Fold these 3 entries.
Entry 1:
Amino acid sequence: MGFVEDLKWWHWLAISLVIGLALGYLNSAGADVPGGAHTDISQLKFEQLLMADTTVDAKGNHIPNISGITVYPPRIAVVNDQPIAGQIVTFTGLIRPNERSTVATLQFCTLMFPVPYEAQPDAEVRRYRGSYPGTTVYTWKKGDTIPSIANALYGKVTPAGVRAIKEANRVFRYAESSNDFILRPGDQIFVPWNPADNRTASDFLAAVKTIHPDVTYRYAWWRSPHYAYQLWTGGSVLIIGIIWPTLIQMMIKGGLGRPPRATDEYDLSRFKGETEEEEEKKPKVVVTADDLIEMQKLQEKMEADLKESGFLQPAAQGGAATTPQPVGVKKLSGGPLELAADTKTEEEKNFEGEYYPVAHPKHREEKPKK
C-alpha cells in the first residue's frame, strides 16, 4: 500500500474534512441543479397548469398537468451580469398539443422563480370563484388607484408593490396606460403578497395545496447550505476519517501490507539508574582464602604453560631466584636523565619599578678619566 500505510489517523480526519466541505459546497444551493428542457412554460403557464383540472386520457385516466415537483432552496443567480435572487423548481410538465406538436408529451422542465414570488392569475376573480393562491381579493371603491391600494394594504407605496398589483390582474397587466382600463365601484381585483415579505415559490405551492390537495411537491432540504455542509462533512468524516483507516489497519494486520520496517532509533527510556537503596540491597562480593588459593594455582599453571612453550627462560641453577624474562626481549639500561646545566649566566637586569616588569640591561657607570 505504500504511502497509504504511512498516513496517521489525524491525516485521514483532515482529508475527510476537506473533502466533506468541498462536497457540501457542490451540493448546496450554490451548486447547479439538474437542467430541464427549454419549453414555452413560464410562471404564468406554470400557475395555469397547477390550477387547471387534471387531463383525462382516452382510457379515462387522470393525468396531472404538473408532477414530480422539486423545490430547491433560494439562491443568488447572475442574469445579464446582475445578481438576482431566485428559487429553482424542477417538474415534469404535460405539454398539450399545439402548433409544434399534435400529441401531448411529458417533458422535464426547470424554472427559476423570482424572490419575492408574485402570483400572476391568468383570469378575473370570478373565474377562480374569489380564491387564488398567494393573493387576497380587494373590492374597488370610488376614487381608488393602484398606489392608494398599495398604501392601504402594504402600509406604504413602493414601485415593487405597484408592479405586483399590476402583474396580478389581467386588466392592468396588458393595459398600456391607465386610460385603457375602467373599474367601477364593486369590481374585484387580486392583491398579491407584499413583496417586502420575500415570499417564495415554496410558499405559493403550499397555498396551492390548500386549494388542490392532489398537488404534491418536495423541498430539496439537502441542498440547503446549512444541511448540505452538515450532511456531507459528517458523512465524509465517518467514512473517510473513521471507517476507511480502520479497514486499512485490518488489511495490514491480515498480511496485505508491507512488513513493519526496522527503526534505527533505540528507546533508552527503558533503562534507568539504580537508587542508593537498591545499591545497598545488592550482595557484597567477599574474597575468601579459598579464592586466593585458587588464584595462586591458576597463576602457577599459567607460568608452567609459558615455560613449556619456550616463551619464558627458567631460573639459573645455584643462583638467586630471578623474575622470568620473556625470550628475545632486550632489557634497557641506563642512568637517570639529567638536565644539561645552562652554562650561560643570565645578564643582570634592571626593572626600574615598572608596573609591568620590563627588563632593561644594567650598565655600569664608567668613571671619567682624569
Entry 2:
Amino acid sequence: MDLTGWLEFFTAGLATQMQETVDRGERVIKTDLLIQQHQFNDRQSIILRHLVDHASSAIRGLEELCPDVSRRTLQRDLRIMEEKGLVVRTGDTNQLVYRVSKEL
C-alpha cells in the first residue's frame, strides 16, 4: 500500500497551517509593539487589535465592541491612529470603513 500521495497532501496542509500560524504570530507581535510604541490606552488597543484581526470595520462594529464608549470618542481614537499612519479610511460618510494600513 503506497501512502506517498496521502503523505504529500498531509505535509502540504501542515506546512500551510504552520505558515498561517507564523503569520498570525508576527501580526500579533507587531501590533503589540505598535501599541507600546504609541502608548495607546486600553480602548485604542482594543480597536487596533480588532482592525488587525478583521482587516476592516465600520464604526458600528467598533461601537458594538466598546458599547460604553461614545461614537465621537471612537472617531477621535481612529483619527489619532490615522494620523500615525496605522489606519486608513475608505468610503463615504454612510459607508465609511476603517482599515489597517498596508504597512501593518
Entry 3:
Amino acid sequence: MDRNFFYRITNEDTIFVEYRTDQGEVASFVVKLLCDIHGSRYEVIRYDSAHGCPHKDTLDTEGHVISDRKVWYYYLSNSMAFTMAIDDIEQNYEFYRERFIKWLRVN
C-alpha cells in the first residue's frame, strides 16, 4: 500500500512522508525536511531507501546531495530507518534549518 502526506512542524517547516508497505513492513520510503526560507521552499534533508539501502542525504542550496554528508544505514531495516528518519527530523529540524540558512548566506 502506498501512502504520502505532509506533516507541518512550524509555519515554515514541513516533513514530507511517502512510503510503501508490503505485508505490514515498510518496503520503501522517502522522508524529507522542507523549509520555506525567504519566500522559497528548499529540500534540506532527505532520508530514503533508494539504492537498496536506507540512507540520509544532506542537500546543498542548489538541491544537490553533498556526497561527503551521505550516511548509509546498512544495519537498519527500512521500517527502523523510516521511524528514525521521522524522529530525527522532528527533533533536529531547527539545527538543519539554521545550518542551511548559513549556507545560503555564504552562496
